[in-house]
Amino acid sequence: MGLFRRVGDIISANLNEMVDRFEDPEKMLKQAVLEMEAAVAGALDGAVKVIANERLLARQLDENLGQIERCRLRAEEAVRRGDDNAARRALSRKTEHAKLAAALGDQHAAAESASHKLRTQIDAIRVRLSEARRQQATLIARKRAADARRSLARDMNGITIDDSAFSKFDRVAMKVEQAEAEADALLELTACCDPADEIDPAREDVETELTAMKHSMATAECSS
């Protein structure tokens, strides 16, 4: 029964806690399942011996029960022949077989009970081993995912982002916007103050003087 306690100890172990205690949880989980499988195999070997012993005891019990019946028949036959000594020997053998059958009966009952219990336990640990295998696969997947997240976190922590390029871009953008604003202002000023539309005072004086001269000359010609 120590073997089954060992199997129970292995399979009942909290695999999540085991993962936390070992440096290489994936390797440890695989090793734990291998131990479970070996323990189950050992349990099967032990169970085979128990079941074989139970069947041997059953055959021995049947044989002794048969001997009891045969000794009874021989004793009756000896009585019918009037051979009391032969009858006594047959009855004595019958008693011996009866005592042996009683002992074998107790042994067989115990072996049969143990055999039934072992079968039940083996079925149970097979189910638990299957569950452990599934849990192993899940835990290994979770462990690998955690390792990936941890590696990513370390990588991200070690990255220094150089924002000088972004600052340079922002400065250029501001200069472009400034140039655009200045161009718009210049166009606006040019539109409002077109030199062609401005009146030059000096030119106005010349035109006035020219007009006066023409009028004066025309008057003089008329007088002559």
Mean pLDDT: 77
String of helices and strands: HHHHHH
Distance between the termini: 160 Å
- The coarse overall form would be rod-shaped
Radius of gyration: 58 Å
What portion of residues belong to β-strands? under 5%
What does the main sheet amount to?
Answer: none
Binned, the helix content reads over 70%
Which regions are unreliable across 5 or more consecutive residues at pLDDT < 50? none
Count of individual helical segments: 6
- The chain-level structural class is mainly alpha
Please give the domain count: 2
Total number of β-strand segments?
0
Question: What's the topology here?
Answer:
Blueprint (H helix, E strand, L loop, with lengths): L1 H11 L2 H7 L3 H57 L2 H74 L6 H29 L8 H23 L1
Helix pairs in contact: 1-3, 1-4, 2-3, 3-4
Mind explaining what this structure looks like?
90% of the residues lie in helices and 0% in strands. The chain is mostly helical and 224 residues long. It folds into two domains: 2-157; 168-223, no CATH class. The longest helix has 74 residues, at 84-157. The radius of gyration is 58 Å and the shape is rod-shaped. It starts with a helix and ends with a helix. The model has no long low-confidence stretch (mean pLDDT 77).
Summarize this, please?
The chain has 224 residues and is mainly alpha-helical. The protein is 90% helix and 0% strand.
Keyword list:
224 residues; mainly alpha; 2 domains; 90% helix; 0% strand; rod-shaped
